[in-house]
Design goal:
There is one protein chain. By secondary structure, the protein is an alpha/beta fold. The chain has one domain: Spore Coat Polysaccharide Biosynthesis Protein SpsA, Chain A (Alpha-Beta Complex). The protein is 39% helix and 21% strand. It contains 9 helices and 9 strands.
């Protein structure tokens, strides 16, 4: 069976990341979990280390953005299948991760993307409008490594993956994740700071985005 690793970028996710790691650790097919603490100033790294033997923590000296953190995690493993997850998921269970992994590990798909459903209106709606921004993916390493200039954007990994599969006409499996959501920036940082951070994130995404040509069903 192919080796599978989970890569989880995290910035100041103490109090949340432990629950995510507990669920991921229970997935038998996942051999290692790489948490990349992206310049966190809280106890994110310490909390991650307490979860179990599967977890390996990388600490970046400064906040470099989600894209850079993801790539650091990918480069730290030789696994042929990668499960990319956010650190602030709420309601995640092992069955969710297994359902995301199955199309790639068992059915041979190049990539599967999780889309929230029946979790919370704001996050469900955001993913229906822009599913290409979903951070929850299972992907074959060969697909990631075939994308040129993957590290050009702080938030560009999801966008780059989506653009590439559209351009190459590679089928992608969408997997509904019922009763899963994530903590929004406004809840982490307060309304004003959170909204400002969200706008900055969207601006960086848009600046790196080239709208896919052809199919629009991912």
């Amino acid at each position: 069976m192919e080796q599978v690793a989970a890569v989880i970028p995290a910035y100041n996710e103490a109090g949340r990341i432990g629950n995510v790691l507990t669920a991921v650790s229970a997935v038998r097919e996942i051999g290692e979990i790489i948490v990349v603490s992206d310049g966190s100033t809280d106890k994110t790294a310490d909390e991650a280390r307490k979860v179990g033997d599967k977890v390996r923590v990388l600490e970046l000296p400064s906040n470099q953005g989600k894209g850079a953190a993801l790539l650091a995690g990918v480069r730290a493993t030789t696994a042929s299948i990668l499960v990319l997850l956010d650190a602030d998921l709420v309601g995640l269970r092992p069955a969710h991760v297994e359902s995301l992994l199955r199309p790639v590990l068992v059915d041979g798909a190049f990539m599967a993307v999780a889309v929230f459903a029946q979790g919370r209106l704001a996050t469900d709606l955001a993913q229906k409008i822009a599913p290409f921004l979903s951070g929850q993916r299972a992907v074959k390493r060969e697909l990631l490594e075939s994308i040129p200039e993957l590290n050009v954007s702080r938030f560009g990994v999801e966008v780059a993956l989506t653009q590439y599969v559209h351009e190459m006409d590679i089928p992608v499996v969408r997997v509904p994740w019922y009763d899963v959501t994530h903590v929004m920036k406004e809840e982490k940082l307060g309304l004003a700071k959170g909204f400002s951070a969200r706008l900055k994130m969207y601006q960086e995404i848009i600046s790196s985005l080239k709208l896919p040509r052809g199919r629009h069903d991912e």
